[in-house]
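RETRY 2/3 - previous attempt timed out on the joint model. Re-submitting the same 622-residue input unchanged.
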Amino acid sequence: MENELLLVLLIPLLGGIFSLFFWMDVKRQKVVFLISTIAMTLAAINLMRSVLENEVITLQSGGWDAPFGISLVADYLSTFMVLLTGIMGLAVGIYSLGDMDRARMRFGFFPLMSFLLFSVSGAFLSGDIFNLYVWFEIMLISSFVLMALGNTKAQLEGAIKYVTLNIMASIFFLAGIGVLYGLTGTLNMADIALRINSVPDEGLITLAAVFFFIAFGVKSAVFPLFSWLPASYHTPPVAITAIFAALLTKVGVYAFIRFFTLIFTHESLFLDNLLIFTAATTMFIGVLGAAAQMEFRKILSVHIISQIGYLIMGLAIGTKLAITGVVYFIIHIVFVKTNLFLISGIVNRLKGSYELKKLGGVYHTYPFLALLFVISAFSLAGFPPLSGFWAKFALVKAGLVSDAYFLVLVALATGFLTLYSMSKIWNEVFWKKKPEDETNLEVETLKKERAGINRQVLLPVVAITVMSVGVAIWAEPIFYFAEMTAEQLLNPEIYIVNVLGVAQ
Amino acid sequence: MEDVLPFLIGGLYAGGVYLVLHKSFVKLIIGLIILGYASNLMLFTISRITRGAPPLVPEGAEALVEPYADPLPQALVLTAIVIGFGIQAFAIVLIKVGYRIVATDNLDDLNTTDRLDD
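RETRY 2/3 succeeded.
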């Protein structure tokens, strides 16, 4: 049973190491990457099946009992995040087979992707705060290299900002670990959750919470710590942006949920207000930033910030319904956001640009692509009956039930502005006529550079669209699962008992 | 010793932030390295320092006898130093390549990716 948990981590690690043996041999690296990612997804499905039977699966590494060794814990939240990691890794991997340029593939794109998937799943499964720090660092170093891979001017500029701010976040994370260890004398999350109740000074717990808040806030790009995201996310090739958008900020949100439902559960008006303030400003400023942009990928990148605001909003409300909404929202946003990025990449392949001003007429020539975009874009904006509607509905209802009218108001206004920026893309890219100033000569030269659509880039987009529609159609079973997850999160005793053993 | 270390940590944090706020690439990296040291030292100090008492079980005894130094923070700091070393090495190479390709040593010039296109 425990080994099922280990498989999810071992497969991408071995995949990454094996593709290092085939350095510069892109063909074999592709094969290794595909096999390992498919195997990882299957292992995650298997883990999900087994977690649904057993509630929580714990692996005590090295056979050392819980507070002394490093625990790897798979509960509902961790497991579905790992499953999403596998699916997204596979989808973006297939897309990159058709889209990534040869130079980047030769310089280790596939091993880096494997290590990224490895570290992201590790961060989801870790049950030890220092171990979580180590997973974060592996994730950071793989994402640093992916971000700078190719050495273009824009990428390096973005990477310098991304690296600097994320190193700062790690420094805060480490300081927070120090404070928490000083208070409780343990690193195991379940053990900390038990012992933190006997810490006399609640002010010190809040201090530790603020350290973690800053660290995870930078990773998940909340206001005012998000400035690295709009500066860097649109610079690497679209496959890299898509996997970052799908996973990296979600790791920050996962850490937020884990820490603020398991460890920092003490009554603190300051922390409650901090979360509410952060949620509202992140939602609203993110969407305003997106509305100001005039470039396909920049609109989408800045939009990530606003979606993170919704997730923090659910956490700030903190009732069972709100956490249920957050879980559903994560599933929805991972599918939809990644898909929109991949579609922007296809449009770039067809038209040779991301600038809204230079694009146009895609609906006329590629109506199917326009349909795929519409489904994802309107789902993001929250149109019924697509998945975004159910996600926002649950959050707004949770807000109304708990009298958080201010957050609800901001959330609804944000939804409206989301619709504005999505319809801006729709008008400029798909609906309006092709720009006139394109002379015939330019069209001829551009056509040579334009890559066109191939199967590898279209397949993942269609598959993710189908899945995101599926998330909307089968909203009931998914909500049922989300509710179980929320119940598990709001009753940390289940987690604690399973990690530390019944004897304690 | 424990009375001096907080001031040292505070000084390191202050110096690190001061250097990070400079415009030069190199000062940025040195600032980040110093901030890393400050956090490592804080992690080490905050979990209480015991001097001259290694955590070894004395002969004949079954368990450790108080007072003894907690070995865990030392292991953590060691890990953090190694990880920090790797990240810093990458950051130094990044700014070197960045300096060559962006052709500037002024962080204020790195604003093309933030700009709104009009």
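Chain B touches chain A through 40 residues (CB under 8 Å). Closing ticket.
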